[in-house]
Amino acid sequence: MSQVITAQMVSALREKTGAGLMDCKKALADAHGNTDEAITILRKKLGAKVDKLAGRSAKEGVVESYIHLGGKVGVMIEVNCETDFVARNEDFRAFVRDLCLHIAAASPVCVSRDEVPEADLAKEREIAAAQVEGKPPAAVQKIVEGKIEKYYSTVALLDQPFVKVPDKTVKEMLTERIAKTGENIQVRRFVRYQLGT
Fold first, then answer.
1. DSSP of 37-89, one letter per residue?
2. Is 15 exposed, middle or buried (0-12, 13-18, 19+ CB in 10 A)?
3. Do 83 and 98 belong to one domain?
4. Residue 71: exposure state from Cβ atoms within 10 A (0-12, 13-18, ≥19)
5. Which of 29, 48, 72, 82 has its CB 3.0 to 4.6 Å from that of 183, i.e. a possible disulfide?
6. pLDDT tens-digit profile of 101-123?
């Protein structure tokens, strides 16, 4: 017996994911009305759409700043998109403000793992290997790589759990915004200032 897909179910899923109406309806039908399964289906589908958008030029956007209460931490970020229409959209601007808050709270060092200096990675690998000395070489390799993955989630913005939605990374939140707007969105750069450091 198949689950009846109501307009309210489609609307609720669309609100959660930002996907198109037909995509939401099809995902709910494929998931037999299970919203969690439908979200997973959409995330898989929208991920492919995001990959297609990644090559497009993003030259519009906003520069946003945030000064934390007490004036001891400040953040400035540049987030780019393809059109001025999206750059002026309140949802996009709210997301950029949330990124500022995230950076103030989580203290990332760089935008992506590609930007982590190789010297820092080598130092972390050396420390991790010293901590598991005496174990079989295959185990050491796996443990070291696991510790490096964890290190990325402390220094690379896109790899960090998003402060407002801890079960998703910043990259996953960004991917959702890309799918919702239908445009390539990139966190170009940021700077975080903290008094006394």
1. HHHHHHHHHHHHHHHHHTTS---EEEEEEEE-TTSSEEEEEEEEES-HHHHH-
2. exposed
3. yes
4. exposed
5. 82
6. 999 999 999 999 889 888 888 89
Handedness of CA 86, 91, 94, 99 (dihedral sign): negative
Domain-embedded: residue 142: yes
Task: Give the pTM.
Answer: 0.69
| CATH number of the domain residue 101 falls in | 3.30.479.20
Residue linked to tokens 């930002």 = 18
E strand or H helix at 193, and its extent?
strand 186-194
Whole-angstrom distance, CA of residue 187 vs CA of residue 171: 10
Arithmetic mean of pLDDT, 55-67: 83
11 with 85, same domain? no
Identity of residue 135: K
**Residue 181 carries which side chain, given as an amino acid letter?**
T
Residues 97, 167: one domain? yes
Q: Are 126 and 179 part of one and the same domain?
A: no
Torsion of CA 141, 145, 147, 153, to 10 degrees: 180
Q: Which residue type is seen at 50?
A: V
Q: Which helix (H) or strand (E) holds 148?
A: helix 137-155
d(CA 177, CA 50) in angstroms, rounded, equals 10
Gap between the Cα atoms of 111 and 152, Å rounded: 10
Helix (H) or strand (E) holding 125: helix 118-131
